[in-house]
Amino acid sequence: MVQINLLFIVRKDMLPPLTRSTIDSHVIKFSEGAVTMSIVGGTYAQDLNPDFDCGGMPDMVVGFNAGLFAYESWNCVISYLDSHPSVIGVFSDYNEWSGVNCASLGGKNARNSICINPFRQPRSMPVYCMNLPQMSNAFLYVYNQQVLE
User: Fold this and answer.
1) Across the beta sheet with 115-116, what order do the strands follow?
2) Is this prediction's pTM over 0.90?
3) Hey, which of 9, 78, 137, 149 has its CA 20 to 30 A from 46?
4) How many domains does the chain have?
């Protein structure tokens, strides 16, 4: 039987106020059949150990609209992916320019993996400081891409 464990790491300041104290004290888990979803408050690799406070080494790290260049907290995640080539990292970004630059942190293969996300938000987001098309989850790129047999 296949068992799927999804762990959502949410910055504590982004949690709803009523759940902050609950999540600070332990991991909240929901189970339905073969799927278990857990929520933990913190920042990956700062408050939480990447090898993993939540049940073992991950198979995949996913960051939506991650902005790897914009937030220093991603540096330890990028280092972790560099030192663990079996762990896949999938990230999305708002615009192609940002996606290309963030993907380049993962080397040539990650930079070559950038593509338009077919499940992106359909409407563009107005950004007045730059003249680039921008949509939520618009571009995807992969670190440590694997080939399935």
Assistant:
1) 60-63, 88-93, 139-143, 115-116
2) no
3) 137
4) 2
Q: Are residues 36 and 51 in the same domain?
A: no
Same domain, 27 and 69: no
Place of tokens 């939506």: 64
If you search the block for the tokens 């921008």, which residue do you land on?
134
Q: What is the 3-state secondary structure (H, E, C) of the chain?
A: CCCEEEEEEECHHHCCHHHHHHHHHCCEEEEECCEEEEEEECCECCCECCCCCCCCCCCEEEECCCCCCCCHHHHHHHHHHHHCCCCEEEEEECCHHHHHHHHHCCCHHHHHCCEECCCCCCCCCCCCCCCCCCCCCCEEEEECCCCCC
Q: Which amino acid is at 110?
A: A
CA nearest to 16, candidates 39, 32, 35: 39
User: Within this chain, do residues 52 and 110 fall inside the same structural domain, yes or no?
Assistant: yes
Answer for the pair 69, 106: CB distance below 8 angstroms, yes or no: no
